Structures are given as structure tokens and as C-alpha cells.
């Protein structure tokens, strides 16, 4: 059924005076549905989102309506049903969730079914991390989209600083479950990997400024339909990153070690649209745009630092490591490689690939960074004003837990 937000999105995109009949035609509604569409447009006028005149209806341009459109577009880009989230009650739930590190039903004065509904809506879109199902406990990661969503409905946006938690016991419990389930459901597991792969490619390249949406990423990589509204370079960037990820996944499956050659190979595949730099260690200084505090290695430091990092990796990989030691080393490895910054461009996307490789060869399956944690991940890596491996460790724990919970629930 068409909603007022569907109509608002169409009218905002249209950007001109419009008649209800044109809206009805766009949504393929029959003449008998004209009154319903007209009522929705009248409701929007009462909400001060559109204006009504003798000439028709037109969107009112102001900060609040611009924000609404931006949130809708964010949802469309990430294949989220915005009609589920643009609701005063669920935003009140999110507002309260921001105040808690971990929360359960006793933290909310709502019916258990409503609580479960809100948790599941947010979780399926990667905007909530489920810690346990019985009892149903979750975390709502703070990010700009949820902050704007809460503020739009005039709820308080308060985030309480909590002590850092460790989720090793939950991860270990889910790992045992995963190892039991994956071989029993090989076909389902393969399907899950394919879905995660496309989602990760979209999320990873979104962090690098690629404008492709998740629906278009699916069409391009699964259905081989090329989007018409993107540049050739943006499309090639997506296709090339898929090649690099598939090579990484195969190498990890075969337990191949990370070597300098393997790393440059991933970069070469990911950056083939830039054949001048693909797979080549840089020989000139670089700076991170907008991040003057993020210091990278000087040209003459790259090879020595890279050799030391790979040496430490080789020493690590031959040991029998606990989950705690794995996460400690992975956080160090990720940040160290990113700060060495061995390539002219494409360092962060390569860092994510080799980090995933490292985790998977240590028996920790990770395929994606959920949408709700992208900002925290970025803020704990190249977005951090000061390097903090422990902060990244915390985010990685939640990323891993999200991956395991999602996979295990699908396999069960």
C-alpha cells in the first residue's frame, strides 16, 4: 500500500507543483484510488510537508523536510523499508536504547511483542546487534542516521558513555554453534556468503565515497544489470572489488598465508580501474583528505614497516591463539597496515580485505560490517584523532558477533 512517505519522496524528487492524478498514475493506482492519494497529500499538507494551492500540491523546502528526504534516500540506498522506521514509537524506542549499553525488555514500558518487533526491524537492517535471544538483549550502535531519525520526531538524542564491554564469551558460544551448523547446511551457507559478499562490497565502497546503492549493487553483481546513473569508474570499482574479495575468500579457505605478494594482488584486483597505481607500492607522499591528524608512513619507511608487520603476522599465525589474542592482534594489524598506507589509493578497502582474511584463517567467520556499525568502525580507524587499537577491538567484537548471530539464525 502507498504511504504518505512514498508520496512525499516522489513529490520531493519531482520538485514541482503536482496534481493528485499524476501521483496516482506514478503509483499505478486506478481512478477509484484517487481519493486515497488525495487524502495522503492533504495529510502531508496538514503536517507542513507540502503546500496546497489552486494549482496543486508542492513540497515545502525547509531543513526538516530536507532531512526527511535525506533519511528516506539513505534507506533506499541501503535497501531499508523506511516506512517501518519513520514512526514515532520506534524512534522513542531507539532514543531510550541509546541510553543503555545492553538493554532488555525490562528497560522499556512496552508490550513484549512490540519490543520483539522493534528489535527485529532494527536487527535485520544491521542497526541493532542482538547479544542474546533468550532473554532478548541488544545494543543500538550510535550513528548519524539513527540520531537524525530520533531528532526528526523530536525525541532526545542522548548517548551515555559506558564502560567498554567484552563479548568474548558470546562470540565463543556462537562460534561453537556455527561450527556445528555450517557443514550440515552447506547450500544455505553458500547462499548466505553470497549475500554477505554483496552487502560488504556496498558497505566498504560506501566508506570510500562510491555512490552505488545496495539495490544497484545487487543488480550489478548478481543480475549483471548495469545501472544507468553511475559513472564507468564507479561501476568498475564495484566489479573489481568483487574480484579482490573472491580471491581473498578463496585464499582464506585454502589457509593461504598473507604475504606481500598476496596483499599487492588484492590491491591490484581491487584497483584495476586505476592501472597506474594498481598493485604498486607508492613512491610519493600521500595525505588523507580532511584528516590532517592521520599520519601515514614516509615513502622510505613503507618497505621496512611492511616487512616488520608481515614478520609479526607470521609469528602470530603459527601459534595457537585464544580469541582474546586474535582480536588484539587483528586490531593492531588493521591499524598498523592502514597507517603504513603502502598504496597511493585503495588502502582502506585493502585493509578490510586482509583483516577479514586474517580472521577467517583463525576460524572466525566475518563477511560484512553491519550498517549500524560503519560509523563506529570508521571512527576507530582512519577517522580517529588518535590511534586506539582497543577501541577498534571493541567494534570488531560487535561486528563478529553480528556476523555469527545472523549466520547461525539463518542456518538453524
Question: Can you give a write-up of this model?
Answer:
The chain is mainly alpha-helical. The protein folds into three domains: 4-61, Arc Repressor Mutant, subunit A, CATH 1.10.10.10; 75-152, Orthogonal Bundle (Arc Repressor Mutant, subunit A); 168-411, Fic-like fold. The protein is built from 18 helices and four strands. It has helices at residues 4-14, 20-26, 34-46, 63-77, 82-85, 88-97, 112-124, 144-152, 168-181, 186-206, 214-221, 232-253, 260-270, 299-317, 323-340, 347-361, 374-379, 389-411, and strands spanning 50-53, 56-59, 129-132, 137-139. The strands form two sheets. Strands 1-2 form a two-stranded antiparallel ribbon. Helix 12 packs parallel to helix 16 (347-361). The longest helix has 23 residues, at 389-411. It is globular, with a radius of gyration of 23 Å. The chain starts with a helix and ends with a helix. The mean pLDDT is 94.
Number of domains: 3
Widest β-sheet, arrangement of strands:
1-2
Give the rounded overall mean pLDDT.
94
Main β-sheet description: 2 strands, antiparallel
How far from one another are the termini?
32 Å
How many helices? The count is 18
Low-confidence stretches: none
List keywords for this structure.
412 residues; mainly alpha; Arc Repressor Mutant, subunit A; Fic-like fold; 3 domains; 18 helices; 4 strands; 58% helix
Amino acid at each position: 500500500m502507498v504511504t504518505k512517505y512514498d508520496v512525499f519522496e516522489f513529490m520531493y524528487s519531482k520538485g514541482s507543483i503536482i496534481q493528485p492524478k499524476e501521483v496516482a498514475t506514478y503509483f499505478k493506482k486506478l481512478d477509484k484510488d484517487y481519493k486515497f492519494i488525495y487524502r495522503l497529500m492533504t495529510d502531508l499538507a496538514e503536517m507542513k510537508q507540502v503546500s496546497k494551492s489552486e494549482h496543486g500540491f508542492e513540497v515545502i523546502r525547509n531543513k526538516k523536510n530536507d532531512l526527511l528526504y535525506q533519511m528516506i534516500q539513505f534507506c533506499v540506498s541501503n535497501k531499508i523499508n523506511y516506512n517501518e522506521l519513520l514512526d514515532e514509537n520506534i524512534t522513542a524506542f531507539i532514543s531510550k536504547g541509546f541510553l543503555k549499553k545492553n538493554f532488555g525488555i525490562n528497560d522499556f514500558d512496552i508490550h513484549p511483542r512490540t519490543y520483539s518487533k522493534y528489535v527485529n526491524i532494527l536487527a535485520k537492517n544491521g542497526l541493532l546487534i542482538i547479544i542474546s535471544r533468550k532473554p532478548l538483549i541488544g545494543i543500538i550502535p550510535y550513528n548519524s542516521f539513527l540520531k537524525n531519525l530520533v531528532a526528526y520526531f523530536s525525541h532526545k538524542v542522548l548517548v551515555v558513555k559506558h564502560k567498554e564491554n567484552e563479548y568474548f564469551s558470546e562470540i565463543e558460544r556462537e562460534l561453537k554453534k556455527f561450527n556445528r551448523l555450517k557443514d550440515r547446511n552447506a547450500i544455505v551457507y553458500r547462499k548466505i556468503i553470497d549475500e554477505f559478499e554483496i552487502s560488504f562490497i556496498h558497505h566498504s565502497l560506501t566508506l570510500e565515497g562510491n555512490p552505488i546503492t545496495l539495490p544497484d549493487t545487487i543488480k550489478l553483481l548478481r543480475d549483471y544489470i548495469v545501472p544507468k546513473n553511475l559513472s564507468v569508474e564507479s561501476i568498475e570499482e564495484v566489479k573489481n572489488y568483487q574480484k579482490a574479495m573472491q580471491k581473498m575468500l578463496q585464499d582464506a579457505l585454502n589457509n593461504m598465508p598473507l604475504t606481500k605478494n598476496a596483499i599487492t594482488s588484492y590491491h591490484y584486483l581491487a584497483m584495476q580501474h586505476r592501472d597506474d597505481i594498481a598493485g604498486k607500492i607508492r613512491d610519493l607522499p600521500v595525505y588523507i583528505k580532511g584528516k590532517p591528524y592521520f599520519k601515514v608512513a614516509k615513502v622510505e619507511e613503507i618497505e621496512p614497516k611492511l616487512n616488520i608487520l608481515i614478520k609479526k603476522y607470521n609469528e602470530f599465525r603459527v601459534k595457537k591463539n585464544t580469541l582474546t589474542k586474535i582480536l588484539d592482534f587483528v586490531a593492531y594489524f588493521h591499524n598498523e597496515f592502514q597507517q603504513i598506507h603502502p598504496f597511493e589509493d585503495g588502502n582502506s578497502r585493502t585493509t578490510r580485505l586482509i583483516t577479514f582474511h586474517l580472521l577467517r584463517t583463525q576460524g572466525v567467520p566475518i563477511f560484512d560490517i553491519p550498517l549500524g556499525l560503519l560509523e563506529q568502525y570508521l571512527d576507530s580507524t582512519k577517522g580517529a584523532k588518535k590511534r586506539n587499537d582497543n577501541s577498534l577491538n571493541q567494534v570488531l567484537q560487535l561486528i563478529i558477533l553480528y556476523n555469527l548471530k545472523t549466520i547461525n539464525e539463518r542456518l538453524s
